[in-house]
Target: Protein SCO1/2
Amino acid sequence: MSRALPACCLSLFLLASCTQRDEPLVLTYGTLTETPRPIAEFRLTDQTGAAFSRTNLLGQWTLLFSGFTHCPDICPLTLGIIRNAEDKLETPGHHRVVFVSVDSERDTPALLQEYLGWFDPDWVGLSGTRAALNPLLDSLELGYVRVPLGSEGDYTMDHSTAVVLIDPEARLVGYWKAPLDAERLAADLATLPAP
Model:
């Protein structure tokens, strides 16, 4: 003899069923972490001058890449490949792109806004002091270092080249290593479930 669930229990059962994924996340070309890793609390500034924190990562898949606007090759190449991969999607992806500048001296919000406009003005650009950047980048295991060039005070930045995947619960769940391929990245982005 079966018994009907009370309305309150049925609601909880349906909510639990809807929030659990039927299938595990699979990346064909990227690499999944063994377990999702929560991202540390941080507070940076986006390209419009607004505050951006860990809370802003909740509710949506995020592709995050760190670099700097004065980069002569890796950064524009990587961002171009991400843009190309997005163009290859048949339907809009369930993700957003975030570019985190590791060059706090030169990359102002206005410069980030201009720079990202060359790729996609809807992408998010973040900047902040070294102390503000480190909690986020350390929790993503993305390194960077300032490299002096000559005696005029000029410098460049060496930085990680991986594109990381952050899930809608603000956890690091995967990454793609260089060299990136737009077709392969698009194939993986197409498999991301709706948040």
About this structure: The chain is about 30% helix and 30% strand. The first helix runs from residue 7 to 19.
